[in-house]
Amino acid sequence: MAKFLLKSTYSAAGLKGLVNDGGTKRAEVVRKMIEEAGGRMESMHFAFAEDDTYVLCELPDHKTVAGLAIAIGATGGLSVQITPVLTPAEVDEVTRMKTTYTPPGR
Length: 106
Prior knowledge:
- With 106 residues, the protein is an alpha+beta fold.
- Helices cover 42% and strands 29% of the residues.
- The protein contains four helices and four strands.
- It has a four-stranded antiparallel beta sheet with strand order 2-3-1-4.
- The longest helix is centred in the N-terminal third of the chain and has 14 residues, at 23-36.
């Protein structure tokens, strides 16, 4: 499975829901959503900065992540950005890949 970082920013309505639910309940809702999509949540953190939440998770593929992002955004409670992330071992693998590339102008 691939790893992803989901960064979310609450709308005013979403913040009202957070006040009612609390952080622990929201984390459980997110965990359940990810597990129902065939994934696993590694961690969720609240920041209240430029982004309000950070979720590190594993999901089966990019289509699954896109589906979750659309479903989350459609609620109007928050907006979400998705970043695929790599482990150090995965970076080791990709840096050993042999590719041929010619930069523009050469």
